[in-house]
Task: structure prediction
Amino acid sequence: MEYCAAHSDEDTTGQQISEERGKELSDGYERAYRVLRKATSVGAYIISDEVAEALASLTSGHD
Result:
């Protein structure tokens, strides 16, 4: 979420985020994405079917 907000602000205001901040945001996004993919992969073994479906909808189209 923070990744998208920062890039949206960048587009809206025209102010560039620093390369270091961009890397921090990108790294955080990648970590969160991996966590979501892992949770989606284990599905109903660990989480409910409803939660597995919600997670899958969040990650669909990002592969």
